[in-house]
Design brief:
This protein has 13 helices and eleven strands. The protein has about 300 residues and is an alpha/beta fold. Helix 2 packs parallel to helix 3. The protein is globular, with a radius of gyration of 18 Å. The structure holds flavin mononucleotide.
Length: about 300
């Protein structure tokens, strides 16, 4: 039995990535209703709105869902306490050391997976006692490690050292990506950019169109010598930041204008290398069903091509 399915009770081992303002109840419930695991973000820092979004999930789906807690950005224990009190069953932690909250969450019966971009981070999280890991390769969109290790290499390296369920994230949009992640040792996948460009995603059409029109080399990793390091679409703004070689957190201040007003140069348009593989806006259910269908076809093809 797939350990991630056992931990969550979902039909398919597909998680929708946490994404500030985007991973709210409309998108997350569509993913959960289609058999994946929808996640509600809290990285926007809009604590009260996020609490409402979590509470709303029970009226939109009777399927499992989760919440992401970006540890460095939590101002206090309020979100953690809310998850405990409101019967949240699955939490992904990210951006920081999971040690502080892992026992509180686990004592409340919550399954905790921690997001890591490196083997070193994975070993620390394992020691902290998390139940699983989200392994983020350099291909992914959003905040990144300055050390660029590709997903397949990272999954294999972590699998060799750590016996925990691993969810592969970064650059995956379909069943081929899913099959290659599972072949490398993952138990499931997480997709961000693919769901940003789904029908149910709340972002402006300009952002979705920029994703589906982007070429395979359509993203840049920005700010490798400083913080934050992010992967984003090539736009006038990000090409300028790339040339200058520096960026600070204020570059992301107007990201809501990009997400919801469609101003593609209001902030870096966070996206994974997966943009080059996404060709149309599709409903979440189609994305999940075609991913699983393609995954099963790849498995069949591979079992017929043994050497
Ligand atoms: C638009 C966008 C916003 C993101 N925002 C967040 C965030 O707020 N918190 C976080 O932990 N990760 C964030 N990420 C990273 C995703 O959680 C995920 O790891 C990544 O998208 C996986 O790679 P993919 O986009 O190629 O599927 C974001 C990614 C994207 C594309």
């Amino acid at each position: 039995m797939n350990k991630f399915l056992e931990h969550t009770g979902v039909k398919y081992p597909i998680i929708q990535a946490p994404m500030g303002w985007i991973a709210r109840s409309r998108l997350a419930s569509a993913v959960s209703n289609a058999g994946g695991l929808g996640i509600i973000e809290t990285s926007s820092g809009e604590v009260e709105n996020c609490k409402k979004e979590i509470a709303m999930m029970s009226s939109l789906t009777d399927k499992p869902f989760g919440v992401n807690l970006p540890l460095l950005f939590l101002k206090d224990d309020s979100m953690v306490n809310f998850c405990v009190k409101h019967g949240v069953k699955f939490v992904t932690t990210s951006a920081g050391d999971p040690t502080k909250y892992v026992n509180v969450l686990k004592d409340a019966g919550i399954v905790v997976y921690h997001a890591v971009p490196s083997l070193e981070g994975a070993l620390k999280a394992y020691k902290a006692g998390v139940d699983g890991l989200i392994v983020e390769g350099t291909e992914g969109g959003g905040f990144k490690s300055p050390i660029e290790v590709g997903l397949t290499v990272l999954i294999q390296a972590i699998k060799k050292e750590i016996d925990l369920p691993l969810i592969a994230a970064g650059g995956i949009v379909d069943g081929i990506g899913m099959a290659s992640a599972i072949a490398a040792g993952a138990d499931g996948i997480q997709m961000g950019t693919r769901f940003v460009s789904s029908l149910e995603s709340p972002v402006h059409t300009n952002f979705k169109d920029s994703i589906i029109n982007a070429p395979i080399d359509g993203t840049l990793i920005l700010n490798k010598k400083s913080k934050p390091v992010v992967r984003a679409l090539k736009t006038d703004l990000t090409k300028k930041i790339d040339e200058e070689g520096v960026m600070d957190m204020s570059a992301l201040m107007n990201i809501k204008s990009l997400y919801f007003d469609g101003d593609m140069n209001a902030a870096p348009a966070l996206s994974g290398q997966s943009v080059g593989l996404i060709k149309e806006v599709k409903p979440v259910q189609d994305i999940i069903e075609s991913t699983i269908g393609e995954y099963n076809e790849v498995c069949k093809r591979l079992s017929n091509s043994k050497f």
